[in-house]
Amino acid sequence: MELVEHIDWNGKPLTYIIRREVDPSCTTFLTPPEFKQQVGYIVYPAGGEVPRHLHCDLERHLVGTSEVLIVLRGRCEMDVYNDERELVATRELREGDLMLMVGGGHGFRMQEDTVFLEVKQGPYTGLEEKERF
Length: 133
Prior knowledge:
The protein is an all-beta fold. The protein has one domain: Jelly Rolls (Sandwich), CATH 2.60.120. It is built from no helices and 10 strands. It has strands at 4-9, 12-18, 28-29, 40-41, 67-73, 75-81, 87-94, 98-101, 105-110, 115-120. The strands form 3 sheets. Strands 1-2-8-5-10 form a 5-stranded antiparallel β-sheet, with no helix packed on it.
């Protein structure tokens, strides 16, 4: 099992899966700069510090919604689909695993009681922003 797996279709990224076993020794970003969301590990030594700061207003133009799910508890199977709604891959996600969905579609089947932590551009506005298939 790869610790960081990229699932692509016809050269287009669909999903990144980052396994809980990833343990970087230095700051490492896993996504390219053109993605809507940046995912990476920021590593500080004991006694390190992040100086206090504010984030300045910055206007961004984003098309679509990317989504990060972290499995806090449980286990599930995730199906990854391309833009034509065809199944591309099925992967098991376990506690501590992270999934970044950047294209295509997805669905989940819970193998155990499962709790996700979800991070995405939001807020969710209702069913008109999803197409179920």
